[in-house]
Amino acid sequence: MQYLDANLLRYHSGAKKWVEALPLGNGKIGAMVWGKTNKEIISLNYDELWTGYPRDYNDRDRSPVFREARRLALENKLLKAQRLLEAEFQANNSQAYLPFGNLIINFGRGVGRAQDYTRTLSLADALCTVRYTKNGVRFLRESFVSAVDGAFVLRIEISKPVSYEISMESPLKGALSAAGGEMLCFDGECPWESPTNLEYLNIQNRRYSDVPAEKGIQFRGCVKVAAENGSVIYKNNRIEIKDCSAATLIFCCESSFSGWNRHPFLEGKDYKEPVLARALLAAAKPYEALKAAHVHDYQRFYNRVTLDIGSDNQENTETHKRLITYQNGKSDKALPALLFNFGRYLTIAGSRPGSQATNLQGIWNEDPAPPWSSNYTVNINTEMNYFPTLVCNLAEFHEPLITLIEELSRSGEKTAAMFYGASGFTAHHNVDVWRHSTPVRGHACWSFWPLGSGWFCHHVFDHYLYTHDEKFLKETAYPVMKKAAAFYADLLVEDENGYLILAPATSPENNFLVDGEGCAVSQTSTMAMAVIRELFQNCVRASEILKTDEPFRERLSSLFGRLLPFQTGTQGQLLEWYREEQEAEPQHRHVSHLYALHPSHLITPDGTPELADACRKTLALRGDAGTGWSLGWKINFWARLHDGNHAKKLIDMQLRSVGVGRVQMSGGGTYPNLFDAHPPFQIDGNFGAASGIAEMLLQSHDGHIYLLPALPDAWPDGSVSGSKAQGDITVDISWRDGKLADYTLTGDTAGVTVVYQGEVVNHKSRKKEKI
Predict the structure, then answer these.
(1) What Rg, from alpha-carbon coordinates, does the chain have?
(2) Model confidence over 241-273: pLDDT tens digits?
(3) Are 7 and 124 in contact (CB under 8 A)?
(4) Ramachandran region of residue 535, left (φ > 0), alpha (ψ -120 to 50) or beta?
(5) Torsions phi, psi of 500, nearest 5?
(6) Helix (H) or strand (E) segment spanning residue 116
(7) Which residues are within 8 A (CB) of 669 and not within 5 positions of it... i.e. 6 or more apart?
């Protein structure tokens, strides 16, 4: 059952802050609807607006530096190795993702206050609606971003004709014009360099360049109004709407970006005429036709999965008040389901085939100098954005990430050669639209981390495991995986005990103490070894499936048997570094050494119970607190440990109401519009929470499907339908009084083992047998 309070965000006033506005998107265009009555604001983004242009930071051979750092690390001179890497093994920071600006609709202040105000976002049909009455005049605004027509669409209906104005503003360089008197256009340009790099270069006052080779992405955004009555006058800086009661506003955008390795000014694609044509084509269609096409397109994806964990009929309560009362202990059964559905909604709105992958803020960013450049932070955050995609039956929406990985596998080849003297490819902490693959500036705890390529390969092989698309495995996944595996195979070195390790290595953004000083560089790290172990294993498996590349398969198999095994410490915890070290921050937000538990399946409760217990102890020592995304990851960890009550505790923490404040590295929670609060806003926590809820109800790996592996006591009755298990199997599950009631598997289930509460279920007779 699709409960309204699990599919609706509701507010009784307009947004006062950006994190109170409501997000719409089609993968390319992002819109944040504020819902103001006098002066409406629509904050706009376009996925191709980034600073910079293609650059090669592989300017010299740094492999001798790496080899010297490895020597120092193996001799246990860890601080010396770290200082060397920080001094001589870094390049520039990544480029930044930028906002387009605001679309402004000025209705005038008028007399009196708005009454009967409601602002809603329906997740069931991806429509944002604003209704109110002012001076006896009824206003209705309905908006969406259409993937079918490539446009933001806003319908304005007023109970009697009024006049108003429409304009645009942008923090980027550009100018408005009337474009032949038929629409309002903003022609703009992105800066040649990111704010962080300009600060480093101490040239903040030169954001734009007149040199053609240094010019950034060019773009055009256009507004066309189709009025059913009254008149529309296009001027060079605004649109005047006269005596109109019904109109449809169309916004389209296009840029000169023509690929990660093509200069956007010198080799840019045509963008001015195509965007005019698209806006005119959309504006020529009746509003109801635009809306019907959008809803049909959206619902064919959103309706694949339904989650029912009960309802307290809170659909008429403002969403931000639901967060507060839930935090204070009031029952709101559907609120976790709303968080789950919002994560699915953001996937469909933020990552479409042909768009760029979702970055730190999805496609929604208001700041021309955004936190962490709103880039792709690939030591967890970018990957987390796609945690729920496959299990939530949205495999098509994996495509932008797959494209990013495939392109990065090309840009990262030179980085592997010039920084490490190795074959294959690598990627570090930060990536951008130009497929930046080199180490960024700063502390080694984030800068020195060549495991991005390995983690990304988890996603490409998972795509095959869920879809069983052998053509994809052969043409896309395996070639990328092989290149990544070749890189790590070249770098492995023996430790003092004869095991193969990646030396040196870090555990993302964490430190331990050496002589009282923070140190990130170890002889190796548990995460590094887990990523390599999984990659080699998956490469061997893919090679066997494809019946190809036997010599490389044998090489990896030989290396696999010599890899350093997982190790536990004096408190029974899984060790994070090569040796048991004194932690600088025992409750650090990253828990990267549990990669083998999630997203990987190297550690499982039934397959490796002792290591699973070590992971449980690690989580207990690390604590539940963390930033928004950290809470999201921990939900998944506890789900994998089959502890639904603890996972539910983390969901409750994720649903804490958070105001707008400074950057924090703990706390976390949810903003009034359900965006994840790091804080500030990062979208990864939304996806992490959605994935965690899915994992609580369904897990699959190695031919096993686990039903309700982490069902919490707080959800005694419910159902989930349309979820995906590996093998392209669709799963429907229902439960009553905390027990499995029924389930259905749709697809090829030959050789599949169904497990419920540690027992094998014969999925033909439904009888349980001891596992």
Answers:
(1) 26
(2) 999 999 999 999 999 999 999 999 999 999 999
(3) yes
(4) alpha
(5) -90, 130
(6) strand 115-122
(7) 628, 653, 654, 655, 656, 657, 658, 677, 679
Backbone φ and ψ for 153, nearest 5 degrees, come out as -125, 130
pLDDT at 769: 45
CB atoms inside a 10 Å sphere around CB 660: 15
Burial of 537-563, coded b for 16+ CB within 10 Å and e otherwise, reads bbbbebbeeeeebeebbebbeebbeeb
DSSP classification of residue 588: -
The phi and psi torsions of 618 (rounded to 5 degrees) equal: -60, -45
Question: Above 50 in pLDDT, residue 770?
Answer: no
Assess contact for 637 and 617: CB atoms under 8 A: no
Provide the 3-class DSSP secondary structure of residue 363: coil
Residues with Cβ within 8 Å of residue 303, at least 6 apart in sequence:
none
What tens digit of pLDDT does each residue of 202-218 get? 777 789 999 999 999 99
Per the rule left: phi > 0, alpha: psi between -120 and 50, beta: everything else, 273 is: alpha
Q: Cβ(48)–Cβ(385) under 8 Å?
A: no
Question: Three-state SS for 216?
Answer: coil
State residue 1's pLDDT score.
57
Mean pLDDT of 310-320: 95
DSSP labels, 250-277: EEEEEES---TTS-TTTSPPP-HHHHHH
Q: Which two tokens stand for residue 364?
A: 């929604």
Q: What is the largest CA-CA distance in the chain?
A: 83
**Residue 578, CA distances (Å) to 73, 85, 586, 589, 600 in order:** 11, 18, 17, 20, 20
Phi, psi of 562, deg, nearest 5: -110, 5
CA torsion 667→672→675→678, rounded to 10°? -20
Q: What are phi and psi of 471, to 5 degrees?
A: -65, -45
Residues 429, 375 contacting (CB under 8 angstroms): no
Give pLDDT, residue 3: 84
Q: Cβ distance 224 to 283 under 8 Å?
A: yes
Instruction: Show the tokens assigned to 516.
Output: 């009282």
Q: How far apart are CA 35 and CA 24, in angstroms?
A: 13
SS3 label, residue 530: helix
Confidence of residue 660 (pLDDT cuts 50, 70, 90): low
Which pair of structure tokens corresponds to residue 706?
Answer: 């686990």
Q: Model confidence over 542-593: pLDDT tens digits?
A: 999 999 999 999 999 999 999 999 999 999 999 999 999 999 999 999 999 9
CB 506 within 8 A of CB 436: no
Percent of the chain with pLDDT over 70: 98
Model confidence at 762: pLDDT above 80: no
Residues 6+ apart with CB under 8 A from 545: 470, 473
